[in-house]
Amino acid sequence: MKRKRKHAALSGPPLLEAVLEDFRSFLSPGDFSRLLMELERPLHPSLRLNLLKTEPGDAAIQALSKKYGWQVEGVPFCPTGWWVRQARNAVSRTIEHRLGQYYIQDAASMLPPELFNWVDCPFPLILDMAASPGGKTTHLIDRSSDRGLVIANDSSKSRITALRLVLQSWGAVGVAVTSFPGEHFGEWYPGTFDRVLLDAPCSMQGLRTTENHPMRPITSRERDSLAARQVRLLESALRAASIGGQVVYSTCTLTPEENEGVLESVLQRHRDAFKIIDLSERLPRPAPALQSANGQTFSPQVSGAVRLWPHIFGTAGFFAALLVKTAPFDTHNFTPPVRSLSDAGLIKLPSSEQTSLAGRLLDGYGFDLLTLLERFHWVLYRRGDALFTLPHRLLLQFSGLPFVTAGLSIGEFTPAGFALSHEWAARFEKNCPAGRLCIPQERVPAWLRGEDLHGQTAPQNLPGKIALVEDEAGTYLGRGRVLADRLKNLLPSRLIL
Ligand SMILES: C[S@@+](CC[C@H](N)C(=O)[O-])C[C@H]1O[C@@H](n2cnc3c(N)ncnc32)[C@H](O)[C@@H]1O
Question: First and final CA of the chain: distance in angstroms?
Fold first, then answer.
């Protein structure tokens, strides 16, 4: 491949042209013109439904389509993914989106979590090594029905807030967010995880500019340094996987050095410790990885990976491979850093207090907390007045791991009683037949603008005076606090439409 060294001076369409020239030799002339034609078309928004909050099947997407005038088409490799081909308004401007009922994500990014085998692993221990902003983490949680534990890690401290917010909005409980270089996990936790996702930091040469994947010029030095880091991260991912465990390696770039080249390097060094699974039957159209590039011929196994060119499925460019670990890796064990839960200020809620809280939630909302905790193996921990639900598995296997945040806030103890949190109510409102307050349809727009309402009749026995507000169709619209003179709007300001 001939690399033109004029990228640094380029921006906008000329940059795309220069980058495209770099990829011409990997495609037949016919495919290259199809790629050019595809890049002329707008990239329609796509979204993935939240199975923690919506019913499986087509009912949820049909209801949204009817309400917002969407024309949708299913993403072929992701049953919960949909392109919105037509819409009256932006798909981000709905209350359902603000309440975390779907995530807006390029369709290609829906592929990696779908590649794992979930059937044989009902309570998986998952490492998402480079997780922020968390789109794929939410997908991993969905595919494991929030019954496992996901360690969602990202080394960039500045990107952790975005990850936290996405996970809160999704309503995930079985998750802990950490911020370490992914390179450490293989040495800290060798042979531990059932599933490891490495959605690697890359040069983002995906040929389509999206909000999360801006195109920018890239030098060969940067690309080589990214490839070297990807090799280290993939080795760490394979070390951290259990024998028989699965690793997905993915990038949102099409440069062979960061894709096939990385797989080849890791294969050369650890050929007997893993195999690359042939994914050719997993997609409705062929999307094979390259067999050779830039004078290098790759091992036959490498072409089992998939390379999503934009013209194949109408997505941004993307690469993914599924690896299965077959033997232990050479590894030096290092002890991970330790911080106890009590050092993090977390204290287990005594069982008498748990029982009393469960009674109040049952009275106020008809919500059966105890059954839920038992079914999912979740436990309640308190920090000051705030109460959190943590996955028991975190305490069993990673109690010392210094996490930034874990589980989901359930609410807080206030002078007016226990007040259910926004994220808990948004996840479990369907399990609450009581404590609901229906507002007339004509007042819904004012409510969604964040305004308080007057003259509403509130249910009795509301813990913390918190009502679950809904419209006449039963669509949940967030929490309201019942005050003497009004219903105070508790929609978080970032969710106001
Ligand atoms: C492609 S993005 C991940 C996107 C994310 N998986 C999603 O679906 O929303 C790559 C991430 O890797 C993180 N990163 C970069 N170097 C890392 C390292 N050495 N260890 C862990 N994370 C790293 C970056 O901060 C960035 O958030």
Answer: 48
- Burial of 29: CB neighbours in 10 Å, binned 0-12, 13-18, 19+: exposed
Angle between helices 29-40 and 13-23 (to 10 degrees): 160
Tell me, yes or no, whether 336 lies in a domain: no
Gap between the Cα atoms of 150 and 169, Å rounded: 16
Active site residue 252: yes
Q: Domain of residue 83: give its range.
A: 46-104
Q: What is the pLDDT of residues 280-333, one digit of tens each?
A: 999 999 999 999 999 999 999 999 999 999 999 999 999 999 999 999 987 778
CB 245 within 8 A of CB 190: no
288: phi then psi, degrees, rounded to nearest 5 = -70, 155
Give the global pTM: 0.95
- Residue 330 falls within a domain, yes or no? no
* Residue 497: per-residue pLDDT: 75
| Pocket test residue of 140, 199, 258, 404 for ligand 1, highest count of atoms within 8 A of CB | 199
- pLDDT at residue 102 is higher than 50: yes
Q: Could you tell me if the CB of 310 is within 6 A of ligand 1?
A: no
Instruction: Give the helix ranges, DSSP H, for 121-172.
Output: 135-143, 160-170
Give the chain's largest Cα–Cα span. 76
168 lines ligand 1 (CB under 6 A): no
Closest CA to 178 of 142, 139, 131: 131
- Least Cα distance to 317 among 132, 117, 43, 10 occurs for 43
What whole-number distance in Å separates Cα of residue 250 and Cα of residue 111?
9
The letter for the amino acid at 206 is: G
Q: Is the CB of 159 under 6 A from ligand 1?
A: yes
Whether 11 is in a domain gets the answer no
- 206 CA → ligand 1 middle, Å: 16
3-state SS class at 455: coil
Assess whether 271 and 369 both reside in one domain.
no
The enclosing domain of 87 has a CATH number of 3.30.70.1170
Q: What CA–CA distance (Å, rounded) separates 115 from 137?
A: 14
The 10s digit of each residue's pLDDT in 252-285 is 999 999 999 999 999 999 999 999 999 999 999 9
* Beta-sheet strands, E only, within 123-201: 125-128, 149-153, 175-178, 193-199
Residues in Cβ contact with 473 at an 8 Å cutoff, skipping those fewer than 6 apart: none
Q: Six-digit token pair at 223?
A: 């690309």
C-alpha to C-alpha distance for 81 and 114, rounded to whole angstroms = 11
The domain that contains 302 carries what CATH number? Answer: 3.40.50.150
Please tell me the total number of residues recorded for the chain in this structure: 497
Q: Give the chain's domain count.
A: 3
How far apart are alpha carbons 184 and 180 in whole angstroms? Answer: 7
> Tell me: the pLDDT tens digits for 109-122?
999 999 999 998 98
Listed residue (207, 304, 315) closest to 260, CA to CA: 304
